[in-house]
Amino acid sequence: MARTRLIGLQKSETVRQAAGESIGKFILIAIVAGLPAFLEAFDSEIYSFGSTYIVPALTGPSYLTIGLIVTGYAIGIAVFSLLGGFSFDRFSVKNLIIISVAIFSAATFATGFVTTTPELFATRFAVGIGVGMFQPAGVAILGDLFFETRGKAVSVWATFFGVGLFASPYVISPFLPAFRIPFEISGGLAVIILVLVFIFIPSTFKKIGKRPKIKISDAFNYNIILLSVSIFFFGIALFAGYLGYFSDYLIKGLLFKNSSAAVIASSAGLGGFIMAFPIGFTADRIGRKYMVIFASGLVALGSLGMFLLTTNFFGLVAFTFIFGAGWGVYVDILVALGQDSVSDTIVGSITGFLFFIFNVGTIIGGPLYAEILGTNNYRTASIAAVVIPAIIAFVVVLFTKKIVSSNIEEKPKFLMESEKGGK
């Protein structure tokens, strides 16, 4: 038992070896590797939900709007997602996650103490740096454990992400227009998760001999190109419609009270939490391609309902739930399909690249919505910046190829033993 508890302090086993020994160790490593997703969602949503109060309460230049500050956060993620993915293939992923979570912890904590919009921009950019590094690293750990478990493993990330989305509006809503305590909570939770990563994640992820030369055409193949296009347009829709302006739309556009808006917004997290693992489990059974299509379809349908089909409280709860059910796992299952499509030696780099493209889309989303919005033109802004990009993201993934052969030589011992027992 002691050896299991201190699994991250020994140097004899890699992450992949330890996870393959037993289903218990696999679950333990998957849970700890997925916990940073909770931080990402919790912080981004307490800021997103509270931004309609936070930004106007600060002093500073008028050009630093809600959308531009969200863009600063997205720039931090985009730039450092490439670094996070590249580093996964070449350095200790454990140290990478510890460093990035530490940066995140300091920056999210500092967000609660800002008094000007330039300070807010700086702290959100720094939060983005932390997220940009641990986001691809965490998903790469989960997705690259074993080919047979890729969908289920990345759905752990999506599940914790959903929990963070669901909880955060209820955490910040009672404090508004004040906002310090929720960000202090976020920083404290990050420290706890950092300690868990230190204790339970081994330093080395996998053993690789001489690295084969990878052609550009092998890395950026047919599937990767299509997945890049889809995730780019999804990034636009997400940051324009949900993380950028959804709470603003509910409170100022539809005149909902804070409490009602919190219930509507949190239903996205509930959808992600409930649907993530079933979608990931099914992806491992029938193919990751089909569940990417399914999740993307949920996003498109949800965005239509949230911004065009209804303004009714219960209707918005339902469509936001549908949107969250798709969003909660879409990125992770899409990245898993991307991991299926390339050599095991560059899984981290491709993961980082796809997150980079996604975050380039998010950089565009907020300012695009703000530009079209003007004073109060929510409907036009939502059609152009949310609904149309979401539909494009869905249509593109229809043309991807299903991958059926494994790109990972190792198989988990617990799975091989169960297969022998079944014969």
From TrEMBL:
InterPro entries: MFS, MFS_dom, MFS_Efflux_Transporters, MFS_trans_sf, Sugar_transporter_CS. The chain crosses the membrane at residues 26-42, 62-84, 96-115, 121-142, 154-172, 178-201, 222-243, 263-283, 290-310, 316-338, 350-369, 381-399. Keywords: Cell membrane, Membrane, Transmembrane, Transmembrane helix. Residues 29-408 form the Major facilitator superfamily (MFS) profile domain. It comes from the Archaea. GO terms for cellular component: plasma membrane. It is found in: Cell membrane. PROSITE patterns: MFS, SUGAR_TRANSPORT_1. PANTHER family: CHLORAMPHENICOL EFFLUX PUMP RV0191, PURINE EFFLUX PUMP PBUE. This is MFS transporter.
